[in-house]
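Structure in, sequence out. Go:
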């Protein structure tokens, strides 16, 4: 295959051009990768019941996420070190994300200010660091750069043990840095001795594993940006996030990269929506690979999805812009096939789940 005809095609194309250890870093999950596989199996088990004779000749995929008009219900998920797959890194993917939110990773390989300037809609993603002063500085920088939302990832007290990276003794290559941290240094992420992941060692040195609800409440009041909490799977956790002021919740198991054996995100979604769906927007992350998955998420109660790995594969072969245009076109087709004139109609579709 020399050209992608759908979003899923990009993975095999990227495998042909990326170093094996970089491909593994992006593709891999934690532990035995049970949850990584489960995300896909669970999405495929969701069947949407389409409407017929709906009299729908055209479908409009546009919607609103966090009060902002977007071209279709997708945001680019926060993903670290995108220069691993392409020299343009985050700048290339941000420019490709026309009309949709681009979520800037705290561990981006370009400074957040440059990425925000390249994006149509920029949100900033934050991990909880040992140095609260650095957290405050990052928030202030995101506000000054024009980011319109703050997303805090709460499911990484420590990095899940990703065995592909351990077996590869994975290190960041020279020149790929955490550009938003002090002096752009990634410290230990460039050094490995034996069967260890240098990226995991770096994370352990700078992340604070003791993030709690009091910290999240402080964060909600630290800026005027709407707060999105990413990494929620339990409905009670979702209720507590709303209680401290979250404007959005992302149902996510980190793409199968954290607790192996955790529930598939799509399976956790309905209970979270039932718990808080009238109080804030709920987004789905983990395992999304195309327009059919977006429809499944909408019909299961999500306002939209975060899309990750497929866009890195497309970036790797310098085709991210085309990939997103094709995805939007595919979503329009899927909406029409389901008898839906718009995203609101998709949210009213019934679903069936195979055991």
């Amino acid at each position: 295959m020399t050209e992608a005809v759908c979003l899923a095609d990009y993975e095999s194309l990227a495998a042909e051009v990326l170093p094996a250890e970089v491909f593994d870093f992006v593709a891999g999950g934690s532990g035995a990768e049970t949850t990584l596989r489960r995300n896909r199996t669970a999405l495929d088990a969701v069947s949407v019941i389409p409407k017929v004779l709906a009299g729908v000749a055209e479908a409009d995929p546009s919607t609103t996420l966090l009060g902002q008009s977007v071209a279709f219900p997708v945001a680019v998920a926060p993903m670290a070190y995108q220069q691993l797959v392409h020299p343009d890194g985050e700048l290339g993917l941000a420019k490709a994300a026309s009309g949709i939110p681009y979520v800037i990773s705290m561990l981006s390989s370009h400074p957040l200010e440059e990425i925000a300037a390249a994006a149509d809609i920029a949100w900033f993603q934050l991990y909880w660091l040992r140095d609260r002063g650095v957290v405050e500085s990052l928030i202030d920088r995101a506000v000054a750069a024009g980011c319109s939302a703050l997303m805090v990832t709460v499911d990484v007290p420590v990095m899940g043990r990703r065995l592909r990276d351990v077996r590869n003794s994975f290190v960041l290559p020279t020149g790929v840095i955490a550009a938003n941290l002090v002096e752009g240094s990634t410290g230990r992420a460039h050094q490995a001795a034996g069967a260890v992941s240098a990226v995991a060692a770096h994370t352990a040195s700078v992340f604070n594993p003791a993030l709690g609800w009091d910290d999240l409440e402080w964060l909600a009041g630290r800026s005027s940006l709407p707060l999105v909490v990413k990494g929620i799977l339990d409905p009670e956790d979702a209720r507590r996030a709303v209680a401290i002021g979250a404007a959005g919740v992302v149902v996510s198991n980190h793409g199968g990269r954290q607790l192996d054996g955790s529930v598939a995100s799509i399976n956790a979604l309905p209970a979270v929506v039932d718990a808080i769906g009238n109080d804030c927007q709920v987004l789905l992350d983990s395992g999304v690979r195309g327009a059919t998955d977006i429809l499944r998420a909408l019909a299961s109660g999500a306002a939209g999805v975060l899309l990750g790995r497929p866009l890195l594969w497309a970036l790797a072969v310098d085709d991210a812009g085309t990939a997103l245009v094709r995805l939007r076109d595919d979503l329009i087709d899927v909406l029409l096939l389901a008898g839906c004139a718009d995203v609101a109609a998709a949210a009213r579709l019934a679903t069936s789940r195979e055991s």
